[in-house]
Amino acid sequence: MTAIGRVTQLTVRNSTLGNLQANLHKMSQLQTQMSSGVKINRASDDPSGTADVLKIQGDQKLLAQYDRNAADGEAWLVTVDSALTTSLANLRKVRDLTVQGGNGALGSTSREALAQEISGLKDALLAQANTSYLGRPVFAGTVAAPAFGAGDDPAGAYDYKGVDGATVTRTVASGTTVRVDSDGAAVFGTGDESVFALLDGIVATLRAGGDPSDQLDAVDDRLDAMTTELSSVGARQNQVDSAQSLIAENTITAKTRLGAIQDVDLAQIILDLQSQEVAYQGALGAAAKVLQPTLLEFLR
């Protein structure tokens, strides 16, 4: 014979109230999801999903940092590119003036005019060599001081102030670092071997009545150095541009992944909530029939 457990009114009441409470809790969860727009409001809502959300949010923060790095690197490289382009134009003009200075028929007045123009271009080149971005010289590496001293600098005329091998870089992706500054010593030379000292020599030759044409090869060497560095800067700009495009794509992908895990289907939530409300009302009706009336209600 199978034993039948005794079911008391208290057992029925506790079971009914427990079911009603669970139903009400589910309604509360659905209402919270509908008002917040996300499925996971607490880690306990979906532990596995919470771990995925935290991972994706960490990736988003990293992508945002890469994006800031790339934007800053792009600004550095644009500044370097502009300075080099201007310097190339000035030095090409110096070359043309030097060729003119080789004309033995020029008088002293004409030679002085050429000397003054070349001297002015030298000052412009020095200013470009000391170009800075946000207070940081773009041709001096990690040094905060101007890349080159003036011609009358007691510490060394036109000496390069940067540190060899010290470069400014920006990380634009995992394992991808791009140099965003330029080696001023390689581009402009340093001290007596600098382009500035070279132009001073051309000016002195013109004023002395000599032929500066023999210094054209040295001018060409500096033009080649600037052109080479300008090409390098262009390649690095392309690298940063590619990184920015990839960052934008990955950012969209991360947002899509996060939405798939976290965002609610509003239409489905509304339908589930309505179904839960119907179930709750039905449970209340059933509970009213099952639970025994109180003594007071019985006396009525």
TrEMBL record:
GO terms under biological process: bacterial-type flagellum-dependent cell motility
Keyword terms: Bacterial flagellum, Cell projection, Cilium, Flagellum
Flagellin N-terminal domain sequence ranges: 10-142
Domain Flagellin C-terminal: 216-298
Compartment list: Bacterial flagellum
Record-level Gene Ontology MF annotations: structural molecule activity
InterPro entries noted in UniProt: Flagell_FlgL (IPR013384), Flagellin (IPR001492), Flagellin_C (IPR046358), Flagellin_N (IPR001029)
GO cellular component: bacterial-type flagellum hook
Annotated family: Belongs to the bacterial flagellin family.
Name this protein carries in UniProt: Flagellar hook-associated protein 3
Name of the coding gene: flgL
